[in-house]
Specification:
This protein has helices spanning 3-9, 41-58, 70-88, 93-96, 113-116, 154-160, 197-202, 209-214, and strands at residues 15-18, 21-24, 89-90, 100-106, 122-123, 126-133, 143-146, 167-170, 182-187, 190-195, 206-207, 216-217. The protein has 222 residues and is of the alpha/beta class. It has 2 domains: 3-58, no CATH class; 71-217, 3-Layer(aba) Sandwich (Rossmann fold), CATH 3.40.50. An 8-stranded mixed β-sheet has the order 5-6-4-7-8-9-10-12. The longest helix is centred in the middle third of the chain and has 19 residues, at 70-88. The protein is globular and about 35 Å long. The chain starts with a helix and ends in a 5-residue tail after the last strand. Mean pLDDT is 75; it is low at 1-42 and 56-70.
């Protein structure tokens, strides 16, 4: 196994994004209150580097020839993105006040157990809850992932998915250009973000500038 596969299968550094502060977890700060948030600029700078390196790790190429389980790796990375997107997006107040952070999948589920393993993970004060839904069952979704099995119906689904407060994610070619909000697009075995900011704004969602720097902005939208 080459170094890229070892990196992809290694345990990532965990980070917590809280508003404009980025704090590395599981590391006590110097001083009397041990677990308090890191506030000095040098610590913030170090934590920011951790975030950027983590994102670079996710975007490293993975090839079928060198990784024995490429499809499983892709599922793991994309499922992890559905969790981490919650740390870079702000929802309307009533949705932020919910107990559950509902991550919904419409169509054939490409994640399987990988998404279920994330159940209970915290996004601020909410706990991630995976759901498999029909087109009429998306009202309580924070994130709606539209499976590629729905590609033929994508324009119809996007047209009917006008409820504010739902982040619509997919991984089909031109997903963001057709009106989807975030496309987890696989190109040459790399997972790249395509962001339709216009669609995000129209859904009354607030997206972090850090996420915009990581992804590529798609100008056209619905």
């Amino acid at each position: 196994m080459n170094s890229q596969c070892q990196l992809l299968q290694s345990k990532p550094v965990k980070v917590d994004v809280r508003g404009d502060k980025i704090v590395k977890l599981n590391r006590k700060t110097a001083g009397g209150d041990g677990g308090s948030l890191v506030r000095t600029w040098d610590r913030i700078h170090q934590a920011l580097l951790v975030v950027l390196l983590s994102m670079l790790l996710i975007m490293l190429p993975f090839s079928k020839a060198s990784c024995n389980d490429y499809s499983a790796t892709e599922r793991q990375v994309k499922a992890a993105w559905l969790l981490n997107l919650g740390k870079f997006i702000r929802w309307p107040d009533e949705m932020e006040a919910a107990d559950d952070f509902n991550v919904c999948v419409l169509g054939t589920d490409p994640f399987g157990a990988e998404l279920d393993r994330l159940q209970g993970q915290k996004i601020r004060e909410m706990h991630l809850l995976p759901k498999r839904v029909s087109q009429t069952g998306i009202d309580n979704c924070h994130i709606l992932f539209i499976s590629s099995s729905e590609e033929d119906r994508l324009p119809e689904i996007l047209k009917s998915s006008t409820r504010t407060g739902v982040l619509i994610v997919g991984d089909m070619p031109s997903f963001a250009r057709q009106g989807g909000m975030i496309n987890l697009q696989t190109i040459n075995h790399r997972i790249l973000l395509r962001i339709n900011k216009r669609a995000v704004d129209e859904a009354d969602l607030s997206i972090s500038a850090r996420l915009l720097r990581i992804g590529s902005i798609v100008i056209t939208g619905r």
